[in-house]
């Protein structure tokens, strides 16, 4: 059962995924997400990465439809989406496997690390709009070197999806979680 923090976090994720704002998730929302993520410079430069990103976004939809569409109507509403909270810890490997594709898509210059600017683009692409990220990167930069390494990113990504603890820094991976 989702605690209040997880409910807020997943409402924020739902809002990012619900690209047309109609209150339910459909395949076209994930197609729009794939298109949005396809605008990242690294994805535009690398056709194979573009294929991976599109497969990831559409794969999220396929998986979501399978595990959350309890009434089998071909769409996922917020209450159905919240059922994921209890399932995500068992999907740890699935969640972690998506981190590499997201990392590669966000690593604009291909240097094997995510800069503050690249992370800010991740947040904006995630939400489909510019989102303030003041202080967020400093929470995420676990070793304080000014970048997110691939291992740091993978840990933070896992925390973002699975953590119920508001103090885990990965919860801010896609921007701060709104209080309401």
From TrEMBL:
Keyword Lipid metabolism: no
Family matches, as PROSITE patterns: EF_HAND_1, EF_HAND_2
Entry-linked InterPro entries: EF-hand-dom_pair, EF_Hand_1_Ca_BS, EF_hand_dom, EF_hand_pair_protein_CML-like
SMART domains in alphabetical order: EFh
Keywords: Metal-binding, Repeat
Residue ranges constituting the EF-hand domain according to the UniProt record: 5-40, 56-91, 94-129, 136-163
One Pfam family hit: EF-hand_7
Name this protein carries in UniProt: EF-hand domain-containing protein
The organism of origin for this protein: Kitasatospora purpeofusca
């Amino acid at each position: 059962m989702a605690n209040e923090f997880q409910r807020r976090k997943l409402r924020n994720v739902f809002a990012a995924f619900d690209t047309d704002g109609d209150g339910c998730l459909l395949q076209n929302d994930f197609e729009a997400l794939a298109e949005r993520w396809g605008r990242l410079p690294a994805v535009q430069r690398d056709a194979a990465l573009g294929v991976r990103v599109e497969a990831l976004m559409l794969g999220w939809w396929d998986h979501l439809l399978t595990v959350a569409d309890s009434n089998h109507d071909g769409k996922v509403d917020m209450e159905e989406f919240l059922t994921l909270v209890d399932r995500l810890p068992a999907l740890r490997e699935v969640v972690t496997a998506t981190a590499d594709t997201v990392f590669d898509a966000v690593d604009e210059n291909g240097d094997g690390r995510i800069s503050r600017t690249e992370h800010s683009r991740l947040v904006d692409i995630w939400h489909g709009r510019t989102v303030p990220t003041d202080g967020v990167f400093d929470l995420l930069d676990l070793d304080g070197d000014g970048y997110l390494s691939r291992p740091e990113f993978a840990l933070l990504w896992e925390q973002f999806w699975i953590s119920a603890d508001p103090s885990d820094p990965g919860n801010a991976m896609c921007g701060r979680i709104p209080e309401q």
